[in-house]
Every structure is written in C-alpha cells, then in structure tokens.
Amino acid sequence: MKARKSGRAWLRDKDAEKSKASFPELFFDLVFVFGLIQLSHTLAEDFTSATAGEALLLILAIWWLWINTTWVTNLLNTDSEPVRLLLFALMFAGILLAIALPEAFGDHPLPFAVIYVGMQIGRSLFAWFAFRRHDPKSASTFLRITVWACAAGTLWIGGGLASFEWRLSIWSIALGLEYSAPLLRFRFPGLGGSEKETLHLNGEHLAERCALFVIICLGETILTTGRNAAEHMGTDLTFLVFCGAFLTTVAMWWIYFHQGQEEAAEKAEVTSKPEAVAHNLFTYGHLPIVAGIILTAVGEDFALSHPHEQADLRATAAIAGGPFLFLCGNIWLKLAAAERIPFSHAAGLVGLLAIAIATPLLPLYGMNIAATAALLATGAWEYAALRRPSAQSA
Description:
By secondary structure, the chain is mainly alpha-helical. It folds into two domains: about 160 residues, no CATH class; about 190 residues, no CATH class. It is built from 15 helices and no strands. The termini are far apart.
C-alpha cells in the first residue's frame, strides 16, 4: 500500500489546483533560451532558401520537444522527486541538443538526432511507467506515444547517418509522423488508437506554460537584438533600427497578451473537451507564433548588421515573413478561442504583403521600420476596436 501511495505521488492530483507553472518547469525552460539563441545565430550567419527549410525543421523539432514535455508535466506532480529528476535529466540532454544544433545539417548530425530521440522516448516511457498502475487509459496512451516516438526515432537516426542530400527529406518524414500522431489518436497497428479525452489535462496550466514559452522567445529576441546593437552601435542607423526592433517586440507582446492569451486560457479551462482544445490552441496553434518570433529576430539581425543594404528575398522572408507568421498564429488562436474575427490582424497581413512587394525599393532599415509600423498599427487597431461595444471588428 505504501509503495502504491508513493507511486501515486508521481501523478498530479486531479482535484488539486495546478494553474501555475512550478519552479522545476521554469528551470527546465531556461535550456530553451540557449537553444533558441543557438538557432537564431545559425540562421543569421547563413540564411538561404536551403537553410530556411532546415531552420523550419529545427524550429518544429524544438517546439515538439518542448510542448510534449509540457503535456507530461501538466499530468505529473513536479513537486515529486522522480519527476524533478526527469526534468533535470531532460535539461542536461537539452543543453547537449542545443550545442549540437548548429551542426545538425553540418558535419555532425548524428549527435543531434540521438539526443532528440532519447529525450522523446525517455520522457514518454517515464510517463507510461508513472501511469501504468493508477490510470490504465492514460498509460495506454503513453505506450502508443512511445511506439510512435520509436518509429519516428528510426528515421531521425537514419537521417543522421544519411548523406546531406537525403537528411532534410528523411527528417521531414520523421517530423511528419510525430505531428500527425495526435491527429490519429496515436493509432498503431496491433495497438489500435487511444480513446478520446483520456488525459486529465489542466487547460489553464497549459495556457500559462505556452504563454511563458512565448515570453522566452520574445526575451531571446531582446537578447539577440541587444547583442547585435552593441556590436554595431558605431553606425549612424543602429540606434534607429534598434528602436524599431524593440518596438516590434513590444508590439508582439501586446498583440498576443492583451486579449488573445486570456481568451485561450479561458477556453482551455471551461471546455468539456480539454485534449482536443489543447491540441488546437497550444500544440498546433502556437507553432506559427513561435516560428514568427524566431524569424523576426533573424530579420532584426540583418537590419542591424547591414542597414543600408538593399532588401532581397532572403531579408524579406525574415523581416516581413516573421511578423506575417506571428499574425497568422494569433488569428488562429483568437478564432479558436473566442470565435472573433481579428480584422486588425488581417489588415496587418495585407500591410506586410505590401512591404514584401516593395522589397526592390527598400533598404533593410526601411523594411524593418515598415514592418514595425505594421505591427504597431495592428495592435493599436485591435486595442481601439476591443474598447468599443462591438468587439467583433477587432
């Protein structure tokens, strides 16, 4: 009985209030600051159409690693020692993953693949072990998740061993398997699929964890921008571009946190289908938001490093494409959470498209300032619209 009680302590009490992120979870998140900085540096140094595809794959991998860990910590008791040790082990592996990240498409891809696969399988096995005696339905779900992780893991390892020409294709298939598994309810030959709504999620906690990850991404943007501004402060336009970059970060914070994040948290808290809503709002819905912030940081690096250079497609993809992705993600979030049409965001997308079309006419600093203006106008429009009695025109 004592052993059973001890094992049960690994799980979050269904009746307990757990809407706030725990200190071990926040400690774990620090690793991803390093990972995102590594990714931004790698992109800024060599951003081409080929590396853009590689970067997208790495962003997808990092997000998938983090969001799946967040689902597990949502269900487990992070105050118990075994769960804390799991997070510490994942932290150590995450640091090694971040160190290996710049060479994922270089000369040493296998360490990245092995660490990534080990983290995915190890975490899922731990969750299965934690649930196996106390919640058979949840345990069966994590067993299927582990099997899917192993199937995708063979492709990750295979891509790490393959030539450079094949690596992107093989790893893309691996990510496709991982991202499609929840949509298929982890159905696997011989195991069937998981029942709907078997995991007892805390939607408010998931909403807060995703909001904190957005803060991490925005913080990484501030760190990268400050570092680049310090290196180029001698040029005449550095301060102007730095101000624009800072205002871009503020505008992104405002657009996401002023209304949308609260609506997502409320939707996740009151829904009768927490798994389906969590996948829509958080697992998939936050991906373009995160990718957009990371890409915007790369664009700001371009503008700070070479403000007078003429904008090209590479710079356009980062400076205008990053905010474009960010707004697309916020439209998804606000439609799914509150069923309101954010017309301000649609107008922002049109403005960013116009900026992209004007690429041949703009230097990098001009494009950066124009993209900042588009985001500020979007946030101001939404703020004004939400203050009116009819808020559906926001």
